[in-house]
Amino acid sequence: MTVTHAVRRLVSVVFMALCLTPAVPAEVDFPYIVTQTIKDRTGDQVIRFEQARLILVRPHALEILTPDFHSACDPAVSFDGERILFAGKKGANDDFNIFEMTLATREVRQVTREMGSCRSPHYQSTFYTIVSTEPWYQLTFVSRWRGPLSGAAPNEAGAANLFSCTLDGASPRRLTHNPADDRDPFLMWDGRILYSAGRVEGGSRLFGVNVDGADMMIFGQDTGDPVRRMPCATDNGWVIYVESKGDRPDGAGTLAALSERRPLYTYRSLTEAHQGLYHAPTPLAGGDVLVAWRPNAPEADFEMVRFDPETGRQGTLFNDPKYNDVQVAVLLPRAEPDGRSSVVTETDPLGKFYCMNVNINDLKPEQAPPGLFRHLRVIEGVERQDISESAAPRPQRILGEVPICEDGSFNLSVPASVPIKLQIVDDDGLAIRSCDWIWAMNHEPRGCIGCHEDPELTPENRFVQAVSTDSLSLAPPVDKRREVTYVKHIRPLIEAKCVKCHQETNSKAPLLSRSFLSDRLVPGHARLSPVIWNILGKDTTRPWDKAHSDEKTIRQMPPPKAAPLSTSEKRTFIEWIDLGAN
Fold first, then answer.
1. Which domain covers residue 561, as residue numbers?
2. pLDDT above 50 for 8
3. Cα gap 306→26, rounded to integer Å
4. Residue that terminates a domain, selected from 480, 511, 532
5. For residue 292, what are the β-bridge partners?
6. How far is 490 from 530, CA to CA, in rounded Å?
7. Measured between alpha carbons, how far is 31 from 58 in angstroms, rounded to an integer?
8. Could you report how far apart the first and last alpha carbons of the chain are, in Å?
């Protein structure tokens, strides 16, 4: 160790002694498994799992469990404490796959094959259907594979999503259909999976989902830092997770907590940025967690600590100065979570969405008078065919628009297991309320109370108009699903109706230039876009929007003496922007 490194290490130790609450004894009387990663000698210790290894730690003894693997990480222990799942790769050029090790014999068998690079395995509790003769066990894992029903080759990667399969790798099923990355699954006591769901616009939130991919539901509001990763649940009713501003690729950050009983209104921060970085908490009996931690000091490495969420006290459990010690799995038997049943039927190509009353929402009465919400547009997120375009906006198609019933209810039949976005639109076709990407699994009925309603609301039990008839079908054949693109639809309109005047009066900012368009529109929000204000001749923002036009008089475009846009052409501009302005 150089003198400079020694001084930095001493400074960090003194700094942490001043900033942290007193340490707690961290000794444990049971064995555990730790993931060790190679230290980054170039500076900040960012966790990378290439060439990682698993070690078994016992009192006064240490054993490398994966000597025959190029890389191994993500250990998860079976309910009886006798086996572990882990992600591993035998060679440097291999994909990560899921393996299972029997601890008594050290026998290893491969579970997943040709499902892309598979990470973060977890055992599921029993699973069954109404027609099965007996329940069986499955596991959850994360992959960028598109899934068994997509027809895509294993290396055609999309966003990371959750998958399941049986313990021998059979019957793979894609559980989530989020256009952004889903990661870090954790099995709750009730048999549901808690996980980190990415957002297309950035950041991530915590969600829960059934082990068959049905009934996806948010777990926690947008409180705290925008990136929420690596959740786990303690036996005293708290969910502990890592939150950050997203400036680290490994997701390390501070610790935060939510109550299992009221996760939407119980957020509390457990640590502050000056206390260092945390990664991958694991619960212990009694409420403490084991978690990787490193101080805010150059070249400082991660070590394993025991952390008390109630007091904020922590103490070192294990620290190998040659490695980053970043994941831990406790080798103790634990109660098996509740089993789960499934109605998902993969032979059914449809799912259903229904809503009790879109007028139940988080708006003030004067902001949303009766009759405002009358039409519903349904959008499909399209899987990219070219993985080289992964940074480009996701293509979207319009499945259709339907009227909302007079009592605010709707009942739809939609393509199953694809991302769906619901938009309430006004008489001009402008989206005035939108949801994030959701989906219905094959044969699943998905329901909601209202539109952006209080998530803790218990609605009145009533028979709504929309369920008195068959579901409205919004599942047209693929060739009938409508895209609105710039090249095919918008540019021809601009060239025919707009360019002549703008070239004469504004030659320094050509109308077809990227800079001109980007200044006049808000992708995904036509009602906030100045170009739409000009096309419709009015400010189209709503009372709940923060941005309004600062122009006293909005100029109608095209002007009165020019050829006007038809209602259909105006709708084309609006739909293009509401679909992301690709």
1. 486-578
2. no
3. 6
4. 480
5. 279, 304
6. 16
7. 5
8. 53
Span 278-288, mean pLDDT?
96
DSSP 218-249: E-S-S-SSSEEEEEEE-TTSEEEEEEE-S--T
Check residue 29 and give its pLDDT: 85
Candidates 347, 385, 378, 572; CA nearest to 475 is: 378
Residue type, 538: K
Please name the amino acid found at residue 257: A
The model's pLDDT over 227-243, given as tens digits with 9 standing for 90+, comes to 999 999 999 999 999 99
Mark whether 540 and 453 lie in a shared domain: no
Residue type, 358: V
CATH of the domain at 457: 2.60.40.2190
Name the nearest CA neighbour of 358 among 418, 302, 412, 424: 424
Confidence (pLDDT) at 460: 81
Same domain for 502 and 444: no
**pLDDT at residue 212 greater than cutoff 50:** yes
pLDDT in tens, 148-190: 765 555 445 678 999 999 999 999 999 999 988 999 999 999 9
- Across the chain, mean pLDDT equals 87
| Surface-to-core class of residue 445, CB atoms within 10 Å of its CB (0-12 exposed, 13-18 middle, 19+ buried) | middle
What b/e readout covers 58-84, taking b as 16+ CB neighbours within 10 angstroms?
eeeeeeebbeebbbbbbbbbbeebebb
Residue 38: what are its φ and ψ, rounded to 5°? Answer: -65, 135
Centre a 10 Å sphere on the Cβ of residue 54 and count the other Cβ atoms it contains: 24
Amino acid type, 436: D
String of DSSP letters for 68-89: T-SEEEEEEE-TTSSEEEEEEE
In angstroms, how far is CA 487 from the centroid of its own chain? 31
What is the C-alpha to C-alpha distance for residues 183 and 423, in angstroms, rounded to an integer? Answer: 27
64: CATH: 2.120.10.30
DSSP 345-364: -TT--EEEEEES-TT-BSS-
Neighbours of 333 (CB within 10 A): 11
Does 108 share its domain with 241?
yes
Q: What 3-state DSSP class applies to 56?
A: strand
Residue-wise pLDDT for 433-453, tens only, equals: 999 899 999 999 998 999 888
Count of C-beta atoms within a 10 Å radius of residue 26: 16
Strands 314-318 and 303-307: antiparallel
> Side chain identity at 222, as an amino acid letter?
D
Q: Nearest to residue 327, comparing CAs of 22, 17, 49?
A: 49
